[in-house]
Known about the structure:
The chain has 249 residues and is mostly helical. The protein has a domain at 62-92 and 129-244. The chain has helices at residues 7-14, 17-33, 46-57, 70-88, 130-154, 173-182, 209-221, 241-244; strands at residues 63-67, 92-94, 100-102, 161-165. The protein has a two-stranded parallel ribbon with strand order 1-4. A two-stranded antiparallel ribbon has the order 2-3. Helix 1 crosses helix 2 (17-33). The chain is globular, with a radius of gyration of 19 Å. The relative contact order is 0.13. The model has no long low-confidence stretch (mean pLDDT 90).
Amino acid sequence: xxxxxxxxxxxxxxxxxxxxxxxxxxxxxxxxxxxxxxxxxxxxxxxxxxxxxxxxxxxxxxxxxxxxxxxxxxxxxxxxxxxxxxxxxxxxxxxxxxxxxxxxxxxxxxxxxxxxxxxxxxxxxxxxxxxxxxxxxxxxxxxxxxxxxxxxxxxxxxxxxxxxxxxxxxxxxxxxxxxxxxxxxxxxxxxxxxxxxxxxxxxxxxxxxxxxxxxxxxxxxxxxxxxxxxxxxxxxxxxxxxxxxxxxx
Length: 249
């Protein structure tokens, strides 16, 4: 089944939606071939390449919006990238423009939000400055959250979206039960067992004071349009220190 990473993300950025659709149709065929009442997919490429196309085929879809600490998300991704680059470098693909793009970044680096970064995207796959890599990943998180809100607004999907604050809500049985009720899914057991395998990174995700300063520095440079979403629901309901870093006085 197509993952929708790599070239579909490039095509989405340059507006080649027919090419995205062609690949996604293969995914649709696979999904429908399962012949099940409910299909659940977690895919980090959704908002990066195929969310609009997916609505053409599955307009009744419902969604889960996970709100995570961007400082931890960026640090975890940075740790993962360093590991990937150690064993699979160069981890990249060639766009239709003949240029190379880092597949792991997910986004192309050509998105408008990245314009304020002084970075040579032609050679970004050789970038070793961890501070700069971390900033790129923070920007990517902000871009994706903006896309999430735009998607929900455009398709009027707020009432079909359940929001979870991670990790707090994932460890709350009552919240998870409420989520299943929201999606009208019947539990096999009344008791939700939270035991079992937990995904862990290759190294601990440790956020430093310097990381927080890097986020504050980026926020001070960003156009206010990227920060408006953090003044509305569901973000205003997230009572975390990191949310304060995403607002400007």
